[in-house]
Design brief:
- Keywords: Membrane, Transmembrane, Transmembrane helix.
- With 273 residues, the protein is mainly α.
- It has one domain.
- It contains eleven helices and two strands; from the N terminus they run ααββααααααααα.
- It has a two-stranded antiparallel sheet.
- A hairpin with a 7-residue loop joins strand 1 and strand 2.
- Helix 4 packs parallel to helix 8.
- The radius of gyration is 21 Å and the shape is globular.
Length: 273
């Protein structure tokens, strides 16, 4: 018996969904690289100015209050950066949802549920991005943010490093990481596959919430190394991947915690007395 076109497509859902995730990640990283290149002033003294991450060379006096458009650009920067950093580690969960959701073919919408689930996941990270935007605003208003969008105070940087390292050892980190490491168990613990729009969004948002709980301190470290430091962004994204997708992810998280605390203590010890 010859398969229908829909059945043929469903058999290739892994490639289609994986390709869509790959394209989304590639676009996100392209945007981040574009912003980083635009904000690279090549050693120019930016003491009295700040760059807006718009990709078109917008510069404002450092003491001028933020405008609505600046909040929008900074939020967009964080949101797109979170897509580029977090979508790869969420791919197994999204692919699992697509596979379980093959039952959706009866409604003629085999990929709709997966799309809404992914949207819910990314919505959780948009919430984090909004919070990060206001944190960046507060740090910048306190004159503690440099042109790389990194904390200019060694004391504050050390505190963030130590706090992030300690969090890596907490039970909350372990609980959230466990939810991220096993897609099938996550589905079973939270009611299984949902086919309706609201159910897909909420389940994706819940998974994204666990992911935020697992990784928010790692994202906070972007303020230490620089939110527009591409190498630092890539290293943190790799750490997230290793934590979530390897059998020793829990121990990698704890090792990273030790390293973060050690770096913070070293930074504290180097402060002038």
């Amino acid at each position: 018996m010859t398969d229908s076109p829909l059945e043929t497509v469903l058999r290739r859902d892994r490639w289609i969904v994986g390709g869509a995730i790959g394209l989304l990640v590639a676009l996100a990283w392209s945007y981040v690289l574009w912003l980083a290149n635009d904000m690279d002033m090549g050693g120019m003294d930016m003491t009295d100015f700040r760059m807006i991450p718009a990709g078109i060379g917008i510069m404002l006096p450092a003491n001028e209050p933020w405008r609505t458009i600046e909040f929008a650009y900074v939020f967009l920067m964080w949101a797109v950066m979170m897509v580029g950093m977090m979508a790869p580690s969420a791919a197994p969960m999204i692919l699992m949802y697509a596979r379980v959701g093959r039952q959706g073919k009866a409604q003629g919408k085999p990929f709709a549920a997966t799309g809404w689930f992914a949207a819910g996941y990314l919505l959780a990270w948009c919430g984090f991005s909004l919070a990060a935007t206001f944190v960046q605003w507060a740090i910048e208003r306190a004159a503690l943010l440099d042109s790389r969008m990194a904390i200019a105070s060694d004391l504050l940087g050390a505190i963030v490093l130590i706090a992030a390292g300690v969090y890596q050892w907490t039970p909350l980190k372990d609980v959230c990481l466990a939810q991220c490491q096993s897609p099938f168990l996550f589905l079973m613990r939270h009611g299984g596959f949902r086919g309706d729009l609201r159910g897909c969004l909420l389940l994706g948002f819940r998974h994204g919430g666990y992911c935020v709980g697992c990784c928010w301190v790692l994202m906070a470290l972007l303020f230490v190394g620089g939110a527009m430091n591409v190498l630092w962004i890539a290293l943190l994204a790799l750490l997230v991947l290793l934590e979530k997708l390897t059998p020793i992810g829990r121990w990698i998280a704890r090792a990273a915690g030790i390293a973060s605390v050690a770096a913070g203590v070293w930074l504290l010890s180097s402060l002038p007395r």
